[in-house]
Design a protein that fits this description.
559 residues; mainly alpha; flat
Length: 559
């Protein structure tokens, strides 16, 4: 048993003890485990196994006589194990077992024995002990159990052990909720706090704000049991939460979802119609903003929604033109760099090196410039806060309107509209001119340039959210009497889509012809040709602009 992997030491010790008890003579004053045969067996087992592990195993059986017999036949210091065994023998059984489990890191078993030790306290209670004294000791004992549960994350087991004790279960549930909050698991914590009876309002408040569940917050968590919140306090609190949500500081909502939620809060709990419409405008939700304005007979806010959509549409038209140019130029250079990288791979090159010295200055400067200039329209126009949109000019300023993101994840690879604020672009150009040649140029044909070009291509393709906003804007403008602008925006998007499509088809077809030509030449010369496909090719080849909704296409087909 000792030679098995893992060693079966518990079974071996149990077998030795069973054999010793079987041979024990009733008149013998010595312990069965102190017999010569038992001692000889223990000595041999200690020789085969680690003696400390053997001692801990005997201790884990809660058999202190066996543990003493093991310790005597090993190299353990009597000054260490004798006081330990003496102390354990002097403790109540459940307390001693708790101490052993704690020593052996058996925390679940330790909690079970710790809970059982409360029964010993009740049994040893005498008539001289007052009820208050017993209650105090029981409370301290439960607090110790709760702290142990928190420390070792044993809430599930604790709930089972205190299943019939309502008050203790509630406190364990609250402890579990707090533990989930520490782990940033707000949704689970909120469910726990609301599941206890009565609900733990303070914890539910914190959990709902952490996970951004403002509906549950206002429905279940606004009132405290021991206080009454005035209407002004509710409005102030609602305004603060709306600001947190709109700034992205609460939960994991998207920007548009956050703006929509903030608008709903301002409308329902603050009666702030203008603030709600401003939030919807900032989230490019023109139709909803108009609906709210019409509902409250605010023609000035209806006009604000229309003007904001007009300015946004004009900005997008310029952005699409810039994207089309940037994509086409980058795609042409990408085709050349892909060819260079394939040849490098075929020649055994795996690094980021390019071709010759500094390479083609135009190519390397182009890649660096495209990365710098492609700051997204959305990121360049985000940053508005609650109540900041007070006029058409402030709503549509190039620092406050748009909040969509694009396919690329890196800010440096995003596109900047020609309608973006002039000074911002000048600063970027001025800063780039101050750099030395080594800082602004990358090696032509290198892996670095290839990655830069891929990022540029991806950043100039609109993501699903941006496409959705464009479709909503076109539809809103057509409904708001701005049909000419709606049609121009529709055509500008389709022009971008066509440029991307044609550029991709041309590049792919040219690459296929070149591959066919190389294969033909290789066959003539008797060379085995192995085509190399780069990791990025499939992803880049699939880049296309998304189709606008069929309803829009059908509508404009009649115009």
């Amino acid at each position: 048993m000792a030679k098995e992997r893992p060693p079966q030491l518990e079974q071996a010790l149990a077998l030795i003890e069973e054999n010793a008890v079987t041979r024990y003579q009733p008149g013998d004053k010595k312990s069965p485990l102190l017999s010569d045969r038992a001692q000889s067996s223990i000595q041999y087992l200690a020789f085969l196994a680690d003696y400390e592990l053997l001692f801990d195993t005997a201790l884990g059986l809660y058999n202190f006589d066996l543990a003493k017999a093991v310790a005597r036949n090993s190299q353990m210091d009597p000054k260490v194990y004798l006081p330990l065994l003496k102390r354990l023998r002097g403790l109540p059984e459940s307390v001693a077992r708790y101490e052993v489990d704690l020593r052996l890191n058996r925390y679940e078993s330790a909690l079970k024995n710790l809970v059982r030790s409360s029964e010993t306290m009740e049994e040893t209670n005498t008539d001289d002990d007052s009820a208050e004294s017993l209650a105090s000791r029981m409370e301290k004992h439960f607090q110790k159990c709760l702290e142990f549960t928190d420390q070792h994350k044993l809430h599930k087991l604790a709930l089972q052990l205190f299943e019939s004790q309502t008050d203790q279960r509630r406190r364990i549930m609250i402890s579990l909720g707090e533990h989930l909050l520490q782990e940033k698991n707000g949704e689970a914590a909120l469910s726990v706090f609301l599941a206890v009876d009565p609900c733990h309002i303070d914890g539910a408040r914190r959990a709902s704000r952490m996970c951004g569940d403002w509906k549950t917050y206002f429905a279940c968590c606004l009132e405290k049991e021991d206080e009454v919140i005035s209407m002004d306090q509710k409005r102030e609190l609602a305004a603060r939460i709306a600001e947190e949500i709109s700034s992205g500081g609460v939960g994991v909502q998207s920007k548009r979802e956050g703006m929509n939620a903030a608008a709903r809060i301002l409308l329902d709990y603050c009666d702030d119609i203008a603030g709600a419409v401003d939030m919807l405008i900032t989230g490019e939700m023109w139709s909803e903003g108009r609906r709210v304005a019409r509902l409250h007979s605010r023609d000035d806010l209806v006009k604000r929604c229309v003007d904001a959509a007009v300015s946004y549409g004009q900005t997008c038209i310029g952005d699409f033109e810039d994207r089309a140019t940037a994509f086409k130029d980058a795609n042409e250079r990408y085709a050349a760099v892909v060819t260079i990288r394939r040849e490098a791979r075929q020649n055994g090159e795996v690094g980021a090196g390019g071709i010759g010295g500094q390479g083609d200055d135009n190519a390397s400067v182009f890649s660096a410039a495209s990365n710098t200039s492609n700051t997204s329209l959305r990121s360049s126009m985000s940053g508005s806060s609650v109540g900041s949109v007070t006029s058409v000019s402030s709503v549509i300023s190039a620092g406050a309107v748009s909040t969509f993101s694009m396919t690329g994840e890196h800010d440096l690879s995003r596109h900047n509209s020609k309608f973006s604020t002039g000074p911002g672009k000048k600063k970027k150009k001025k800063k780039s001119r101050k750099r030395g040649p080594a800082a602004r140029r990358m090696k032509a044909g290198s892996e670095e340039e290839l990655k830069s070009l891929v990022m540029t291509l991806e950043s100039n393709i609109l993501d699903d959210e941006y496409c959705g906003v464009i479709a909503e804007t076109i539809q809103f403008l057509a409904q708001a009497g701005k049909l000419s602008l709606a049609q121009t925006l529709y055509e500008a998007y389709n022009d971008l889509k066509t440029v991307v499509e044609m550029s991709q088809i041309k590049r792919v077809e040219t690459a296929a012809k070149e591959k066919e030509q190389v294969e033909r030449v290789s066959r003539k010369e008797g060379i085995i040709y192995e085509h190399v496909t780069l990791e990025c090719e499939e992803r880049v080849d699939a880049l296309r602009c998304k189709e606008l909704p069929d309803a829009l296409n059908k509508f404009f087909s009649f115009l």
